[in-house]
User: Fold Cold-shock DNA-binding domain protein from Beijerinckia indica subsp. indica.
Amino acid sequence: MANGTVKWFNTTKGYGFIAPQDGSKDVFVHISAVERSQLRELVEGQVVSYELQRDQRSGKESAVNLRAA
Assistant:
């Protein structure tokens, strides 16, 4: 699992981004991944661990299986 810091997350829009600790490009995170991970919310500056999943249609990666680190 990778670790990163929540850069920003907007619950109204239902998405945000995580800045990986390894310095790679920011990772998209959708509200559905947060809900499936049984987290109440993501807040700016929160450190989380996550796995990357590639979307079959778009080919873009997003964070899934989130856990508070």
